[in-house]
Design goal:
elongated, two-stranded antiparallel ribbon, 6 helices, mainly alpha, single chain, 141 residues, Arc Repressor Mutant, subunit A
Length: 141
């Protein structure tokens, strides 16, 4: 699986919002400057996050964005699924019987499906709250 720039930036935006200790709205410009995200990405990412209900948006003076829920309620997987067309490590695991002419006889397909399961379970088990705590990755997780 290769995570796109949009996926990496979406994760960084969500972390920047999670880092905001108050319930204040953070202006788009502030997020972009803090995370060094270009205009090309920042607006499209926040539209995606807003439509999915991951962030609340407020227009006008004092407006900006904030998380709609607690950082512990967002998994890395849920964020990346919004921006990535696929989470598969290779295109084969997405094969549907009859679409791929080798799916019925492919000896490596179970390998790729197993790898995707491991990656998916790992990303489902890491939250924004975990990412904000470097000690989380020093443990046996």
């Amino acid at each position: 699986m290769i995570v796109s720039t949009k996926g990496r930036y979406a994760l960084r935006v969500m972390l920047a919002l999670a880092d905001e200790k108050t319930c204040n709205y953070v202006p788009l410009k502030e997020i972009a400057e803090k995370e060094n995200i270009s205009l090309k990405y920042r607006e499209s990412i926040l539209v995606i996050l807003s439509r999915a209900g991951f962030v609340d948006a407020l227009r006008g003076r004092g407006g900006g964005y904030r998380l709609a829920k607690s950082p512990r309620e967002y998994t890395v997987s849920s964020i990346l699924q919004l921006t990535e067309s696929t989470m598969a490590s290779v295109s084969c695991p997405e094969c549907v019987e009859g679409v791929c002419d080798r799916s019925g006889e492919c000896k490596t397909l179970p390998l790729w499906r197993g790898l995707d399961k491991i990656v998916s379970e790992y990303l489902d088990g890491v939250t924004l709250e975990n990412l904000m705590n470097p000690a989380f990755f020093k443990s046996d997780n």
